[in-house]
Design goal:
The complex is a heterodimer of chains A (62) and B (459). By secondary structure, chain A is an all-alpha fold. Chain A contains three helices and no strands. In chain A, helix 1 packs antiparallel against helix 2. The longest helix of chain A has 21 residues. Chain B folds into three domains: 214 residues, ANL, N-terminal domain (Rossmann fold, 3-Layer(aba) Sandwich), CATH 3.40.50.12780; 114 residues, Rossmann fold, CATH 3.40.50; 102 residues, GMP Synthetase, Chain A, domain 3 (2-Layer Sandwich). In chain B, the strands form five sheets. In chain B, strands 8, 9, 10, 11, 12, 13 and 14 form a seven-stranded antiparallel β-sheet that branches. A five-stranded parallel β-sheet of chain B has the order 4-3-5-6-7, sandwiched between helices. The radius of gyration of chain B is 23 Å and the shape is globular. The N and C termini of chain B lie far apart (64 Å). The chains are: A mainly alpha (62), B alpha/beta (459).
């Protein structure tokens, strides 16, 4: 899988994670999703993907 | 039956690079990515950090004015540690310099305080992960893998250096043996018993440990260490004599990271061991003439000016490291990331590193100036014994000081230095008029270490 394909898969995973984060009523699950999102942001960043400096900013922009 | 799946898939596990996409990316593409990230960082810092908002306003710019990397280097003001320390002192913990709400702060570190007052460094959880990752590039480059086991010959405290290495081992997936605060003999016994494969320490401490092991009748080269990896004193592995000493002492392959506590582990050892590569996932940096402020071209020596993407809790933009480096962009290892030949070649201020602690001439001078009976004549002599750097501070008392009290005066100075700088230096009181007087530039630091262990510009 090349970098562009990997990034588009990461974006799909991020959308799923954000969905769970926004709707869960468990703080534990929300924290797990925060950390998952952090790692997905990092993977995309390290591939040279177009993201803001921190995932919190992406969220605010979304 | 439930079988544990293998740690890597065969493709990524065989990669010679930790991040093959970015480590070998053509420069032009990499610089385009840097520009986007710098724009994002400037906007973020301007919106969230009162310090940067004011700094930009004083310079008459907004983030939107920065459209090229050239704009960034020439229009965005440089920052220095003292800017941050003053604001933090006025309004602790992070004064006007923080940029994240408190609930995001996951870890607090501090610099050693050798300039007088420690700089407070907040990290978000994400900052710590990014900081740690900087180490992994270097480990992967020399062949260290998750099956390796890391021995930390380090006393854990507020110092960022080895905390970040710990974060790094977790990112890699290796195993941590936390040596902690104990005697050198205790560390040697622990290495004998636990059989780690990687030793993490300052380079001088690794050499001292080897010396102590031999005194204990143990050949350190016969122990389990396959790699030694160093930080705290930049450049040992780029000095052939020191590299050879490290390799032979431990029967291992030595490499290093040159980092700056408040920034991050910003470089890692090139496998050629002639210098370090900048971690360009986390860092943008350029070389500057410390006098004129103009950019220094590739291949020439200038001050390393660093912008980190790591520290979002307290952004550091166009930050002065005062380290003099020689930057190149081509390396036989295949990486396109900036290569700093010889690591750090000197300092743009007056500083030496003793047992991993930066000792500034100005800080010592300030202490001496506060002790009644000490004259303005002093000298700091740097020597090397058993692989360890040692610093002797020679002070002249004032003319009228009673001779019989001069020894106590030296002890008083030694205690004051230890209390303020957290490092023990030997102090000697010498007769009035015995230290050299200089007509022009006063030379306070006298480096008497063997030529091959000094930084290039200090030889």
């Amino acid at each position: 899988m090349d970098a562009d394909e990997t990034i588009s898969q990461i974006d799909r995973a991020r959308a799923l994670v954000q969905g769970i984060r926004d709707t869960t009523d468990s703080p534990l699950v929300e924290r797990c999703m925060q950390l998952a999102e952090m790692n997905l942001h990092w993977a995309k960043w390290c591939l040279g993907g177009d993201v803001e400096i921190a995932p919190e900013l992406d969220e605010r922009l979304a | 039956m439930s079988t544990v799946r293998s740690f890597w898939n065969p493709r990524s596990g065989a990669s010679p690079y930790w991040n093959p996409y970015l480590e070998t990316m053509p420069r032009e593409r990499l610089d385009a990515i840097h520009l986007k990230r710098i724009k994002s960082l400037l906007r973020y810092a301007y919106d969230n950090s009162p310090f940067y908002r004011q700094k930009f306003q004083e310079a008459g710019i907004t983030p939107d004015d920065i459209r090229t990397l050239e704009d960034f280097k020439t229009r965005v003001p440089v920052t220095d540690k003292s800017d941050f320390i003053h604001l933090q002192e006025e309004n602790p913990h992070y004064g006007q310099t923080g940029a994240m709400p408190e609930e995001y702060i996951a870890h607090h570190c501090e610099t050693s305080g050798t300039t007088g007052i420690p700089l407070r460094i907040p990290y978000t959880m994400y900052d710590t992960e990014r900081y740690g990752e900087g180490w992994v590039y270097g480990w992967w480059a020399v062949g260290i893998r998750p099956h390796d086991t890391f021995y930390f010959a380090f006393n854990w405290g507020l110092f960022a250096g080895f905390w970040s290495a710990y974060w790094g081992v977790r990112r890699l997936g290796g195993k941590v043996y936390s040596g902690g605060g104990q005697t050198t003999e205790g560390h040697i016994r622990a290495i004998q018993r636990l059989r780690p494969t990687v030793l993490l320490s300052t380079p001088t401490y690794a050499l001292y440990m080897a010396e102590v092991a031999r005194e204990m009748g143990i050949d350190p080269a016969g122990l389990s260490i396959k790699y030694t990896y160093h930080a705290g004193e930049p450049g040992p592995c780029a000095l052939p004599a020191v590299r050879k000493q490290l390799d032979e002492s431990w029967g291992a392959f030595s490499s290093e990271c040159y980092g700056v506590a408040e920034l991050h582990s910003l470089t890692f050892g090139c496998p050629t061991r002639e210098g370090v590569h900048l971690d360009e996932t986390n860092t943008f940096s350029w070389s500057r003439d410390p006098e004129s402020g103009k950019e220094i071209p590739e291949g020439q020596i200038g001050e390393n000016i660093v912008t980190t993407y790591v520290n979002n809790a307290q952004p550091l933009i166009n930050y002065r490291t005062h380290d003099l480096v020689e930057r190149h962009y081509n390396c036989v290892c295949g990486r396109t990331w900036a290569f700093l030949r010889g690591v750090v070649l000197g300092r743009s201020d007056f500083m030496v590193t003793i047992r991993g602690t930066n000792v500034y001439q100005s800080a010592v001078e300030k202490i001496l100036g506060s002790i009644p009976g000490v004259s303005t004549h002093y000298q700091m002599i740097l020597t090397r014994e058993k692989g360890l750097d040692r610093m002797l501070v020679q002070v002249e008392p004032v003319k009228e000081y009673p001779v019989e009290k001069q020894v106590q005066l030296g002890e008083q100075v030694g205690k004051a230095i230890h209390q303020a700088l957290k490092v023990r230096l030997e102090v000697e009181t010498v007769p009035v008029g015995s230290l050299p007087r200089y007509e022009l530039k006063t030379k306070r630091i006298v480096d008497q270490r063997p030529k091959e262990v000094r930084r290039a510009l200090d030889r």
